[in-house]
């Protein structure tokens, strides 16, 4: 099972709607496949120009390590040099905070990840989760 | 004037529709702003996983140099070392072939670029142009 | 469908056996998944130390572009600056010659790639294909 | 004396068997030679896609510094900026935690290193050591 473009669009639209509903700052949302490659991305008007890289970094670390943003943040807080080293081997592409959310199929296998950035990390994660669930998928924040 | 997310969505949808109409291979489409930063991206089901980087490279070179893909290709064919050097200063992020299309406002100012990849370079450029025009904007291939 | 570790082992062993049967120089063989990530690799005794990167580069470009080594070589010969630019966006990780072989499932979808290096590019490709077919899969050289 | 491919295979198989025996999460195992170059690697089904880079980073730092993962971790905890600087000179390829295990010959000379990732760092190291000892070699965790 993989995330189709149709499902990726739903994830992004519903995550952005959730942000508007919660009156969050403008969000940016990326959806990656099971290999960490971009399926779709949108940046809301008013968001800072560099938001693609942050959204991507949250989702990329999640899928490459098989570890969602919350777990990565705990590891970074407990053993900062380890997550710094992980970032080295992944070319500096990992942003280890909430807002990187793993997407799993019904058997629990990771089929991709969603990265959201723009508001607080916890709000970013809530928006990502809303999008994932609206697409009928299961998310791990 | 800038490319809004709403217009970027139109560009992408219409470029993909053009590809389907012409029976092209699955396409990937990116829209960048006037600073070369990603506004939106979509990769059709069945496209190779690495297509984001190629689409981005076509659009990024266009907006950074203010020179569309066709002009870049001519320069690369006539003076390969120059485009290689350009790629050096831009961190290897430029793919100098058609499919990178500049977007201009009514006064002719560059407000962004579109990058399309998946079929032949010329077909990629045709799909990009169709998307840009459907959004009421003017493209330079 | 994906390439299991069991199938990857078969591909590598049979590719190496083919090399021994054809009296090729010591080979190195990598198997990547559909996202371009390493499943398994072996370097025969007597091979040069840097062979992982060459084997990986052949397979990585194949899966990222959805284009096998032979097609990449043709493109590189006809439009050298294009493949150089592709290498830029993929971080210099592409080696566009035969020996990078796409692996497809029964419906034709790319499920990974095999990279072989050590002898001539054509012999490398032959060894890769022998391994892929011994695993009951279909290869595109 | 060097680690032959035959011995590398034994190391990997026995490390993976140890992981299954201890009911660890899916493991990934790399074997490097005395120059820090890859001899063999395997990633178990179900492991996250980015595990090659982590396994490699554990083994690479070990062999390049002549210092196993446990010693590297102590240094990172006591003098984080030193290990960060080490990573700078080695291109960000070092992951300084247990699971990077030095392999020594009978005279004590380093002939390579093994990197294991997937479970806790200590369990990773135990699996690596089991593999090395099964191959009749001596490991330093």
TrEMBL record, chains A, B, C, D:
<dbReference type="Pfam" id="PF03928">
    <property type="entry name" value="HbpS-like"/>
</dbReference>
<protein>
    <submittedName>
        <fullName>Heme-binding protein</fullName>
    </submittedName>
</protein>
<dbReference type="InterPro" id="IPR052517">
    <property type="entry name" value="GlcG_carb_metab_protein"/>
</dbReference>
<dbReference type="InterPro" id="IPR038084">
    <property type="entry name" value="PduO/GlcC-like_sf"/>
</dbReference>
<dbReference type="InterPro" id="IPR005624">
    <property type="entry name" value="PduO/GlcC-like"/>
</dbReference>
């Amino acid at each position: 099972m993989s995330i189709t473009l149709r499902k990726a669009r739903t994830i992004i639209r519903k995550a952005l709607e959730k942000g508007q509903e919660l009156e969050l700052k403008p969000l940016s949302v990326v959806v990656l496949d099971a290999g960490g490659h971009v399926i779709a991305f949108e940046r809301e008007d008013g968001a800072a120009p560099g938001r693609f890289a942050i959204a991507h970094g949250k989702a990329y670390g999640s899928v490459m390590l098989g570890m969602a943003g919350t777990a990565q943040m705990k590891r970074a807080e407990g053993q900062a040099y380890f997550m710094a080293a992980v970032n080295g081997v992944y070319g500096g592409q990992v942003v280890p905070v909430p807002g990187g959310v793993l997407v799993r199929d019904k058997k629990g296998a990771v089929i991709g990840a969603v990265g959201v950035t723009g508001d607080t990390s916890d709000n970013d994660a809530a928006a990502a989760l809303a999008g994932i669930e609206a697409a009928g998928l299961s998310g791990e924040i």
